[in-house]
């Protein structure tokens, strides 16, 4: 199983009251192609910071991030933006749906960003069709025209997942995807994540406090004091890779 994304010696420091605050302290982590990797640890240990660095939403103070064997430290902002849009997908705890757009248009947004404005009129019908199919596949075909205010928390998170998948990403980064949901709805989102991984081969990196979700991932990376302290391989899931 090849490594798709590798972080080496990642340090992230902030300044607080004029003093350095070290959040990540020489962290190493390799993400394998096609796996579901859970990242766990207590609040404040740097899980979300790590996710943002891996997803090119933030930059490390020191260290390197390599994607498909290409080191990204010297990548231009334009190339980083292209990777975030075309190769990566993102699902966050609080959905980040645009309230004035219906579900299907929210799903289409990353594809709209990817297309040149002159090419969009010719592509828009195909993209809308794909967005509708994604919503149908996650049980929201009858909610395509609903705006976020008319959707439940679980439905909003499903829309966010469909949006993350619209450009066929290689990696989907999830930051506490069930942290704002009840137990039953969380289970439904877990099932969807596993279904997408199994059906598409997309790699998932999931920051979570949810032990049930973590326990069903291929591997669990536990963070402590700004580093990955140990990685557990789930032998019951290993055969699916």
Describe it for me?
It is a single chain. This protein is α/β, with parallel strands linked by helices and 241 residues long. It has a single domain (35-57, 76-238), classed as 3-Layer(aba) Sandwich (Rossmann fold), CATH 3.40.50. The protein is built from eight helices and ten strands. It has helices spanning 47-54, 77-86, 103-114, 120-137, 153-165, 183-200, 211-215, 235-238, and strands at residues 3-16, 19-32, 36-40, 62-67, 70-71, 88-92, 171-175, 203-207, 219-224, 227-233. The strands form two sheets. The protein has a six-stranded mixed beta sheet with strand order 6-7-8-3-9-10. Strand 4 (62-67) and strand 5 form a beta hairpin. Helix 3 (103-114) crosses helix 4 (120-137), helix 3 packs parallel to helix 5 (153-165) and helix 5 runs parallel beside helix 6. The longest helix has 18 residues, at 120-137. The mean pLDDT is 91.
Fold topology:
Layout: E1 3-16, E2 19-32, E3 36-40, H1 47-54, E4 62-67, E5 70-71, H2 77-86, E6 88-92, H3 103-114, H4 120-137, H5 153-165, E7 171-175, H6 183-200, E8 203-207, H7 211-215, E9 219-224, E10 227-233, H8 235-238
Summarize the structure.
This protein is an alpha/beta fold. It has helices spanning 47-54, 77-86, 103-114, 120-137, 153-165, 183-200, 211-215, 235-238; strands spanning 3-16, 19-32, 36-40, 62-67, 70-71, 88-92, 171-175, 203-207, 219-224, 227-233.
């Amino acid at each position: 199983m090849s490594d798709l994304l590798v972080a080496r010696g990642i340090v992230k420091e902030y300044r607080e009251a004029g003093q350095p605050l070290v959040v990540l302290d020489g962290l190493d982590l390799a993400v394998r192609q096609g796996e579901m990797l859970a990242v766990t640890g207590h609040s404040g240990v740097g899980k979300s910071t790590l996710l943002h660095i891996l997803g090119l939403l933030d930059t490390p103070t020191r260290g390197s991030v390599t994607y498909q064997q290409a080191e990204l430290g010297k990548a231009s902002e334009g190339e980083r933006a292209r990777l975030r849009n075309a190769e990566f997908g993102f699902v966050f705890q609080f959905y980040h749906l645009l309230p004035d757009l219906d579900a299907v248009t929210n799903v289409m947004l990353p594809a709209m960003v990817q297309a040149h404005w002159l090419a969009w009129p010719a592509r828009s019908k195909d993209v809308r069709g794909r967005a509708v199919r994604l919503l149908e596949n996650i049980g929201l075909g009858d909610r395509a025209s609903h705006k976020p205010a008319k959707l439940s928390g679980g439905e909003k998170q499903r829309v966010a997942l469909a949006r993350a998948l619209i450009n066929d990403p290689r990696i989907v980064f999830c930051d506490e995807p069930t942290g704002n949901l009840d137990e039953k709805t969380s289970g439904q989102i877990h099932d969807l994540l596993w279904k997408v991984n199994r059906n598409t081969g997309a790699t998932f990196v999931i920051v979570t406090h949810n032990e049930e979700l973590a326990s069903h991932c291929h591997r669990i990376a536990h963070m402590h004091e700004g580093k990955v302290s140990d990685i557990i391989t789930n032998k019951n899931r290993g055969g699916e890779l």
